[in-house]
Amino acid sequence: MKKKPITILDIGEELNISASTVSRALADSSLVNSETKKKVVELAKKYNYQPNFTALSLQSNSTKTIGVLIPNVVHEFFGLVLRGVEDHCHSSGYSCIVYPTNEDPDREISGIKALMTGRVDGVLLSFRGKTNLHIKQLIERNIPLVFFDTADESFATHRVLIDDKKAGYLATKHLIEVGSKKIGFIGGSENINNQLRLEGYKQAVSEAGITIDPQLIVYSLDKSQDEMGLEDSEKLLSVKGIDGIFATTDMFAVGVLKNLKKINLKCPEDIAVIGFSNWAISRVYEPSLSTVEQPGYEMGIKAAELLIDQIKNPETPSDFKTVLIPTEVIVRTSTARGNNVAHST
Amino acid sequence: MKKKPITILDIGEELNISASTVSRALADSSLVNSETKKKVVELAKKYNYQPNFTALSLQSNSTKTIGVLIPNVVHEFFGLVLRGVEDHCHSSGYSCIVYPTNEDPDREISGIKALMTGRVDGVLLSFRGKTNLHIKQLIERNIPLVFFDTADESFATHRVLIDDKKAGYLATKHLIEVGSKKIGFIGGSENINNQLRLEGYKQAVSEAGITIDPQLIVYSLDKSQDEMGLEDSEKLLSVKGIDGIFATTDMFAVGVLKNLKKINLKCPEDIAVIGFSNWAISRVYEPSLSTVEQPGYEMGIKAAELLIDQIKNPETPSDFKTVLIPTEVIVRTSTARGNNVAHST
DNA sequence: TTGTATGCGTTATCAA
DNA sequence: TTGATAACGCATACAA
């Protein structure tokens, strides 16, 4: 039995004035008698009047809400992105509808469809492929759209990314600097981020005059609970003389560290390991894990900022930006050897 | 320049029929001529017509949306809750507006206020205190409300919780079973969950005929990045003869394990350690950490289920349920001693 | 200073 | 079988 919320009409009736006057009084309009204004405000307070959000939206044609399609909410990086998005939204008076897609194309499509019905003023989206058609429809409807984390070049939108290739390059270069010569690459899945990180890896290896060895490059298909890629990293570690590993996620790097203990290889002495993302576990694990910072919070803030700016300035911007959030290598114990010092951040 | 989305009126004009007929045709009403129906459907498809969500909401007085006030989105447990909530919502045709409150009372209050304007059909809320007044207003407005994780007894609502006292009891009892006699308790903050877990701890200790020793009970105020409570657990470990520790979070338990290495105490041989929540890190860390499962996903599913049921059956239910999601002790290396065996889950 | 009428997009009711 | 009209709650242009 839903009790009907009080409306300006109810207030007007009780005061024998029209709804418009109530509306104006509540908006503190200068055209309204201060006596009646006072009465209205008092009554509104008494009944704890709240304007109906849906009516406001219908009339203003804006919902003050954005949609966020995010691959995973149980994830340190994406969680940070979401927190950044929400922080900026909150300070701009916006709300977020969150659609965790769990990397399922069907969920992505149904999310995009839901957002095409005018329930949000804009969309934040991590592009995972397979949804091109629906994204196109979104853009055709002129619904502001900003990509984060991954983007499709073919769409004219703002993008907020990290430079994955550069990050992969820097991580690999760091391994080379601490003396690694036979460096393995282990990636979680063959998505675009990991492909770019692999390109960076290849560039760094080539620049160092080392031949790229395909048997050192592994994509793990491990979809187990923790996705540590234990089996695949074991295989990688069996390559003779391997003395460095770049893993595209911290979890995979930890999987490597675990396997190292089993086969009695010492890290960092025998083999240096670097991960990716700077998750809590990289700080906590022993040995602590060198990694590449992936600033999710900043990415979320920036993406929300660009989106809301675009919502507020609806004339189609001619200059779509690709914002690259800076990353950096964080050196910890797992690569602390040679003339390098471990920072225990 | 926001392109106006197409409406049933537009379609009607083009076909020289009224909006009502279009509406009926789209609803596949049997009262409409199959010829015109066909035309309408075709045109709607051609223009990719989507009914305006806001108008639908205003007219039906329901938004098919729920609000979720959640303390933290960068958090394995709450992330799982959110995933569960979203999964159930998705399969019931609902969307979620997420308000991460970051434990900030102001954010909680502004979230609740935002939800009082009719933009959601119901609210999911983890009660953190200090917002009693606003929650009361929510209830007075007959907005369906379900508590998860923590609840305030004074409100008549459904609740989805774990039995924290029992969980604390079982964790401590497990330590006793593996031979611990002088057991420390370390909790992250003095919130209601931790207080209940402490009660369980006390009960188990007392039942074992051990006197409760206040110096063995510590609440850490560590608000550092990782909240491992390193300093406080160090203090606790300095108590002579301590041979078991129950930490109310896995992160704190890991902090204990780290400190043990420093002072050359062996786990589980010299001291047994059990955490709480069954986070990924408890499986990954070495030694692997015994812990108490805290089923966030199930909690989210159940909470969303109760809320949406209540939304669909608006007559005020007389029997508010308190659903306790079952928990269990997960035994790993950190307590594997005596006649116990480590399960490496 | 206030009231009336209109529109936002849709469905439902009533009339034709 | 279809159309006109009201209603959802609000803001605003126009009339008084």
Mean pLDDT of chain A: 93
Largest interface, with counts of residues having CB < 8 Å to the other chain, equals: A-B, 59 and 59 residues
Integer-rounded radius of gyration of chain A = 27 Å
CATH architecture of the largest domain in chain A: 3-Layer(aba) Sandwich
Can you count the beta strands of chain A?
A: 12
Write the layout of secondary structure elements.
The structure is a homodimer of 345-residue chains.
Chain A: H1 8-15, H2 19-26, H3 34-46, H4 53-60, E1 65-70, H5 76-92, E2 95-100, H6 105-115, E3 122-125, H7 132-140, E4 145-148, E5 158-162, H8 164-177, E6 183-187, H9 192-207, E7 217-219, H10 230-237, E8 244-247, H11 250-262, E9 272-274, H12 280-284, E10 291-292, H13 296-312, E11 322-325, E12 329-330
Parallel strand pairs in A: 1-2, 1-3, 3-4, 4-5, 5-11, 6-7, 6-8, 8-9
Antiparallel strand pairs in A: 10-12
Chain A binds a DNA duplex (16 and 16 nucleotides) through helix 2 and helix 4.
